[in-house]
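Researcher: Here's a chain I'd like modeled. Treat it as a single chain, no partners, no ligands.
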Amino acid sequence: MQRVLLVLIISLLIPASAHAARAPASFSVARSLLATSSSPGNAYAAGASVVLTAPVAGDFSALGGSIITAAPVAGDELLLAGSIHLRAPVGGDVRAVGGSITINEPIAGDLVAFGYSVYDFGRTSGSVFITAANTTLASGAAGPVTIYGNNISLAGDFAGTVHIFASGRVSLAASTTITGKLSYEAPEPAIIPSSATIVGGIEYTNASYLPDIGTSRILALVSMGFFLFARILGALLLAGLLAGLFPKFAEEVVERAYTKRLRSLLLTMLLGFAVFVATPILFVMLLLTFVGIGLALLLLIAYALLVLLALLYAGILLGSVLARRFARRETILWHDGVLGMLAFSLIALVPVVGLFMAFLLAIFAAGALLQIFFHFAFPHEEQTPEML
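Model: Modeled as a single isolated chain. Structure tokens:
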């Protein structure tokens, strides 16, 4: 089936002039084109609106926003437009790509159509291949029919087999006759009236396009895995950038973790914990007052930025600890941030214990950041601005 689709698509893209008679061709381009002169050979037209009112002895190819053929074409037709309306017979094949395709007259050759909606009220003497959301064949077809779409309706006499692949409803009108076999895949059985005649029999395949429970779980796990991978990758990049662009600032955060006074460590963690807990409460209280809404929004932005930086510098802190432990190096490089953020992300994946350790690192980093920002805003030492 894939080979058949490939052959049909390639045949659609072949220029119609390759099959045309050797005769002088006519070319017309205009914003609103009205072709009133007949062409002894091929005719090519392009415009926002193309209307063919004169016969074409060869092939007719057109590109536009709207195409209407009101005169017969002896050869093939190749049409690409948003709206296509065939009001005259075609002596060859029709290849059409458009949003809305309507065919009112017979086609002597094959029909290949791609669009959102295809309505064929003229009988096609050759094969029919249609891909559209909504398809209606009201006058049958003399050759084999293959349709891909959502809602598909059939009526008239079909001399060959009919293959349908539908994601919606398939219905047959009263007195529809199919000489060959009706083979279709759809979520539910087709609506076939008792007056319809199907000589070759019916082959129905129940094709539900909704995933089952097992597939849904697999898709959910894949989605969660992709989201987790993207989140960790983004955190690694940001941590590496912060460690590489502002090494002095990162070293200042790390030095606060290597203090020999346990009291300073606990106070720094307590400060970070207090800000993590107290800020949301203050945000809610400000929202209750009309004047405090603006302050609440500013506070929310600052709080989100602090949490993000705390998580990133928690990873940088962990990377610095690993660098001092294994590489015997106190300076912070960009790959220390990447490695530390990776270790921090893996620790956070461990239930309970890992989350608790990651939380401790995050609140310490938040407390250290607040202390550094405070000393930067209200400097007491000349070296404080050098951290940036």
